[in-house]
Write a structure and sequence with these properties.
The protein is mainly alpha-helical. It is built from 9 helices and 2 strands. A two-stranded antiparallel sheet has the order 1-2. The two termini are 27 Å apart.
């Protein structure tokens, strides 16, 4: 019941981020040049997936990213990781991967559990490296950033489902609403960074979070 109420309270924020996110997309459409390499890299990976990878079973790298994201958010939420396992073959319990960690509840538990469904781990690592890449090399580097980002979106789509214990453990309705909100925050944020407007990121986040507040004050 509590999570249902929380999900309902989250919906106005999701709508606010959707509105502000459309503004980000419009800004990019009006000036697409800075993000063309990113889009090209993503498009190439999308075609490779469509014609080749789509027919293959999910491999070790998919499982590794999923479990690594859980582990990263354990660390970010100050929770100890006890063990980490990821592979291409299921264990005796039928799991391809698992992270055993210190028990977490509340928001920290939600972030740790649902993080693989909104956080682009491989892209995040590349964006950190991107900070030290020379401007002259950004065009080539962004090809790989775009490829990892589209990989994340496709992986998200494939992994999400009500058969996932991650989803059901947080209740289905709450998980769906929370994941939508998180993606509406993350996706435009990545686009702003690659578009060369990292300075607008705080403005975007502030507008998204403060939007519903303006309805009441």
């Amino acid at each position: 019941m509590i999570r249902t109420v929380l999900a309902i309270l989250i919906i106005p924020f999701a709508l606010s981020f959707l509105f502000h996110g459309l503004g980000v997309f419009l800004k990019i459409i009006l000036n697409p040049a800075p993000i063309v390499p990113f889009l090209f890299g993503g498009g190439v990976y999308g075609l490779i997936w469509l014609f080749i990878l789509r027919r293959r079973k999910r491999g070790m790298w998919d499982t590794f990213e999923h479990e690594l994201t859980h582990a990263i958010f354990c660390i970010l939420c100050f929770k100890k990781v006890h063990s980490f396992m990821a592979g291409s073959k299921a264990d005796q319990s039928g799991r391809l991967g698992v992270v055993y960690h210190e028990q977490a509840s509340g928001l920290r538990g939600t972030l740790i559990t649902l993080s693989p469904y909104f956080f682009p781990t491989y892209t995040a690592f590349l964006l950190l490296i991107r900070l030290f890449v020379a401007d002259s090399a950004l065009g080539v580097f962004d090809l790989f950033v775009g490829a990892t980002f589209i990989y994340h979106l496709i992986s998200n789509w494939q992994e999400f489902g009500f058969h996932q214990s991650d989803i059901t453990s947080q209740t289905k309705f709450f998980s769906v609403v929370f994941i939508i909100l998180a993606n509406l925050i993350i996706i435009p944020a990545v686009l702003l960074i690659v578009h060369g407007e990292a300075g607008s990121l705080l403005s975007y986040l502030g507008g998204g979070f403060l939007g519903p507040v303006g309805l009441f004050f």
